[in-house]
Amino acid sequence: AQRVTQPEKLLSVFKGAPVELKCNYSYSGSPELFWYVQYSRQRLQLLLRHISRESIKGFTADLNKGETSFHLKKPFAQEEDSAMYYCALSGTGNQFYFGTGTSLTVIP
Amino acid sequence: GAGVSQSPRYKVAKRGQDVALRCDPISGHVSLFWYQQALGQGPEFLTYFQNEAQLDKSGLPSDRFFAERPEGSVSTLKIQRTQQEDSAVYLCASSFGQALYNEQFFGPGTRLTVL
């Protein structure tokens, strides 16, 4: 089974503080992992993906196969980072699995 | 260039009615996905098209759900004999390539409410 778990539904941090959004997955193979973000009144959009090894808006995510995790991190949170974040996975077949999402609030 | 569009944006149906939800993907995008998003949940995969071929429909919750993309562009998701549990936001997404590591571009969604 392919599943994505985001244990925190809500997360609040102060501006300038580090932030980490947790994502764990269950997959018997080599998955592709993604983070999607939805800002208020906007569409769901790609933030970053493991295959690109990129840093977007100061966010990074490292795939840890031993812990089956793909946590999203940013060293200094900004108010504009407040949004809903979804971890997602694609693997065998053509399905695409999203987690339940974490709502991040950055407190000024 | 316009992004992915969906219509209608809102749909209210009485239980037992049939509904049809439309998705216009970005021109030239090969892949098209439909998702169902219940309140407070993440998007749940319903079905996947590569051009006009429906390669995966494993996420469709029942045989009341049917999707098509006859010419490899516009897609329609049809729900027959709607039930209250069908109330959700239905998202469509398209991507340029065939591989599932390509970025998906999402539409605004259609919010379906079944009374």
Folded structure, characterized:
The complex is a heterodimer of chains A (about 110) and B (about 120). Chain A has strands at about 5, 10-15, 20, 25, 30-40, 45-50, 60, 70-75, 85-90, 95-100, 100-105. By secondary structure, chain A is mainly β. In chain A, the strands form three sheets. In chain A, strands 2, 5, 6, 9, 10 and 11 form a six-stranded mixed sheet that branches. Chain A has a three-stranded antiparallel sheet with strand order 3-8-7, with no helix packed on it. A two-stranded antiparallel ribbon of chain A has the order 1-4. Chain A is globular, with a radius of gyration of 13 Å. Chain B has about 120 residues and is mostly beta strands. Chain B contains no helices and eleven strands. In chain B, strands 2, 4, 5, 6, 9, 10 and 11 form a seven-stranded mixed sheet that branches. The interface of A and B includes residues 46, 90 and 98 of A.
Task: Produce the secondary structure layout.
The complex is a heterodimer of chains A (108) and B (115).
Chain A: E1 3-5, E2 10-14, E3 19-21, E4 24-26, E5 32-38, E6 45-49, E7 60-61, E8 72-74, E9 83-90, E10 96-98, E11 102-107
Parallel strand pairs in A: 2-11
Antiparallel strand pairs in A: 1-4, 3-8, 5-6, 5-9, 7-8, 9-10, 9-11
Chain B: E1 5-7, E2 10-13, E3 19-24, E4 31-37, E5 44-50, E6 53-56, E7 65-68, E8 75-79, E9 88-95, E10 105-106, E11 110-114
Parallel strand pairs in B: 2-11
Antiparallel strand pairs in B: 1-3, 3-8, 4-5, 4-9, 5-6, 7-8, 9-10, 9-11
